Amino acid sequence: MLRTVEITAELTGLDESEEFHNLHWQPKLELSLDCFICERTGRTTSFEYGQEHANCSGDQKHPRHPAAARISGFDVTHEKDRLALRAVVDFWWAPFHDAKRDTRSTAMTRWIRLYAAYLCPQSRQAGTFSTQSNLVCPVSRICTCGQPLGTISHAPSLRQLI
């Protein structure tokens, strides 16, 4: 059956001075999903916006393989000192039993990982960082030049739509 989830996250306290770092959400993410193809629970599934399918990390028996999932919406809102993200992810799910872990599959994800990127105006070097739903917040992110990039006040959230 088709499942749809909405993921939201935000960075606050952005510095919009002359030391602007062009901070932005990257159009990729990872979810922990139960994969009915390799019949394993808790697989890290990688998504990139615009791709027709995601990729399941698999295991030794079933190496990395396509997953019936995709990012169907990726919206970023940049306000005065806030950078918000709303992503919509569709994925197919079917019940199965993970024989290796002796557990039943579930249609809900266990965690989310999101990525952000920036360009340091001093060093002219690109940088990235990630945030995930099991992160203890608040967390401040700082560039290698010492400039604050922003604060993650709350871990990314997930809401099941279908």
Write up what this structure looks like.
This protein has about 160 residues and is an all-beta fold. It is built from no helices and 14 strands. The chain has one domain (about 1-160). The strands form 4 sheets. Strands 5-4-3-2-10-11 form a 6-stranded antiparallel beta sheet, with no helix packed on it. It has a 4-stranded antiparallel beta sheet with strand order 6-7-1-14, with no helix packed on it. It has a two-stranded antiparallel ribbon with strand order 8-9. The N and C termini lie close together (about 10 Å). The model has no long low-confidence stretch (mean pLDDT about 95).
Helical residue percent? under 10%
Structural class: mainly beta
Strand content: over 45%
Number of E-type strands: 14
| Spatial ordering of strands, largest sheet | 5-4-3-2-10-11
Q: How far apart are the first and last residues' alpha carbons, in Å?
A: 10 Å
What about the largest sheet?
6 strands, antiparallel
Features:
162 residues; mainly beta; 6-stranded antiparallel beta sheet; 4-stranded antiparallel beta sheet
In a nutshell, what does this entry contain?
Helices cover 0% and strands 57% of the residues. It has 162 residues and is mainly beta. A 6-stranded antiparallel β-sheet has the order 5-4-3-2-10-11, with no helix packed on it.
